[in-house]
Amino acid sequence: MTCAALTWFLVLSLVLLCIRDSASLFLPDSKELRQLLNRYEEDAEQNNGSNTSGDRTRRAIRWSDREEILQLHNKLRGGVYPTASNMEYMVWDDELERSATHWAEECQWDHGPQDLLMSIGQNLAVHWGRYRSPAFHVQAWYDEVKDYTYPYPHECNPWCPERCSGPMCTHYTQLVWATTSRVGCAVHVCPKMNVWGEIWENAVYLVCNYSPKGNWIGEAPYQHGRPCSQCPPSFGGGCRNNLCYKGESTHKISIVHLKIKHNTELKLFTHLQTLTHNIKCETRLRDKCKGATCNRFKCPANCLNKKGKVWGTVSYDVQSSICRAAIHSGAIDNNGGVVDVTRTEKFPFFVRATKNAIFFSLSVTEITADCYTTVAEICPFKRPYSHCPRISCPADCKMQPSYWSPVIGNNIYADSSSICRSAIHAGVIKADGGLVDVLPLDKRKGYTGILKNGIQSERYWSCVCGNLVLL
């Protein structure tokens, strides 16, 4: 072999080795990539290279992926926290799928087309390389919830604040927007796609279009409350998995209107600390009221003729008898009863007046609630501290399912918990119902779950809700 021939042989061998080594770098991923491409693109050749006689109609997303996307949307929407009272069941929309297909085929990493965005919502996702199902991206959109703080009604005056501590929360809010009831998605493999200045080859592009659109500025994504309690009338009371549902319902909700009445004689239920204190006719405000909000007191009968002094009218000095001041203000009569007392700012003087034969006191109201009622619905935490009405719980709340009447915490509970089931869990009342006093507290970072009194409470961390204490 000549020197020149030997040289060409060595060069050719080196090229072949380089090509072979380069190819081997892609072999581990080539099978997955080929499966991915075959999943969403038609091959030009079918049946071992034979040509087809005509084009075959193909949807932009597989049926199995479509069902997975839809089911995951409804599962996530039905499980939002805090709970939603008007979250609608989502269905697939073929027209939205077609519009998503047209945009996905443009292979532009941006929302569009602009003329359509005026009337629809849109979430986008893209990846390349290792296979990921469309549901992977749907879950990633929802996971933005970790950076989102839900705006409660008392924070919306009238516009709700936008509180997102992460890069973006709008994928999550669109996904759980209560009135968005239709979705259509498409998947397209783009040979080359510009993603934030980088060219991705064989990029798998997911486009989901929503209607009616969400993410309206100044609005909360949904109304907080008992699931399905504020569904539009067009749903006819239908409810499925915490979602307003048209059609045969897995649960029909019965809305119990809260009835308020004056309290005269109440049976007290106590647990650990007692919110309602039994006091004497002579007990003064200064003896019991230590904070901004004073406790709830039960006065005995016949305080009208006792010796406790009363200074003031409407507002009373701390030296005044609690029970006799309550009689003077009209909160209770001489038969006794339960009163709430609230501390106010100092007064330079107190007016003397003869009224009802005698501090600022209020009669305690009693609310008849159902097994689903939460503190967030009837007595949300706010400053300055305020008293909550006394809750009358019905029987058989213990047997209600946890997804419908959740109990979150132990002794101190999240304000989205069912008051009555939490009271059973805490040991305040039995399964046959009873009266419960509730004290709203400021929010906590987390709650522990424990099995107690036949009810398993839930554990929850990084919660942004308020608390309640049952007494």
TrEMBL record:
Residues 1-24 form the signal peptide. InterPro entries: Allrgn_V5/Tpx1_CS, CAP_dom, CAP_sf, CRISP-LCCL_domain, CRISP-related, LCCL, LCCL_sf. The keyword ATP-binding does not apply. Keywords: Disulfide bond, Repeat, Secreted, Signal. Gene3D superfamilies: CAP (3.40.33.10), LCCL-like domain (2.170.130.20). It is found in: Secreted. PROSITE patterns: CRISP_2 (PS01010), LCCL (PS50820). The keyword tRNA processing does not apply. Residues 275-358, 365-457 form the LCCL domain. Its main location: secreted. GO terms for cellular component: extracellular region. This is LCCL domain-containing protein. It comes from Amphiprion ocellaris.
